[in-house]
Write a structure and sequence with these properties.
By secondary structure, the chain is α/β, with parallel strands linked by helices. About 15% of the residues lie in helices and about 20% in strands. It has a 5-stranded mixed sheet, with no helix packed on it. Strands 3-5-7-9-10 form a 5-stranded mixed sheet, with no helix packed on it. About 20% of the residues are buried.
Length: about 170
């Protein structure tokens, strides 16, 4: 079971470590391991569900400035990034298909979106689920957007996909 989880982490680019403690491990020994992990800057504390497809929680006190959501993540949970004031940019991959209520209830300067096509298909719980609502600048495919042009071939745009745009949209 543990080896399978370690393999799943590796597949989505998440480093993992396995700690095997003896059954007779004392509370003091366990505390020492926990303290070492708490002091280890490579351990970020970002909480995923067991199959690594949902971000459940991003630690509020984490000092990370930029975060790229791993490819393979399909869902961002309710209030997952709430209160993460140090973030200056977030990058969302094409794999994200749903974003929970108030998932990004924090302002940040830059939002990077992979493509308009995939963005139009995301299920947002509410308008406040959409990180566009909180971003100062939006980039699609690496280009800063000042006017959004919806490409031909898009037949559906999910609710709240482009709510609170700070720039015009052309359909």
């Amino acid at each position: 079971y543990v080896a399978g989880k370690s393999k799943a982490c590796a597949q989505v680019g998440i480093s993992s470590q396995i700690y095997r403690l003896a059954e007779e491990t004392t509370e003091e020994e366990l505390s020492k391991v926990i303290n070492q992990l708490n002091e280890d800057k490579s351990v970020d504390g970002i909480l995923f569900n067991k199959d690594l497809t949902t971000i459940v929680s991003f630690p509020q006190g984490y000092e990370l400035k930029e975060y790229t959501i791993p490819s393979g993540v399909t869902s961002i949970g309710q209030e997952a990034f709430d209160g993460c004031c140090s973030l200056e940019s977030i990058t969302l991959p094409d794999s994200v298909t749903s974003i929970g209520e108030d998932a990004f209830r924090v302002y940040f300067p830059k939002l990077y979106i992979a493509s308009v096509d995939s963005w139009c298909q995301i299920e947002f719980a509410t308008q406040y689920s959409n990180p566009i609502f909180y971003a100062s600048t939006v980039y699609i495919g690496g280009t800063q957007i000042e006017t959004l042009i919806i490409p031909e071939g898009i037949t559906e745009i999910k609710n709240y996909a482009f709510g609170n745009l700070g720039f015009p949209a052309v359909l």
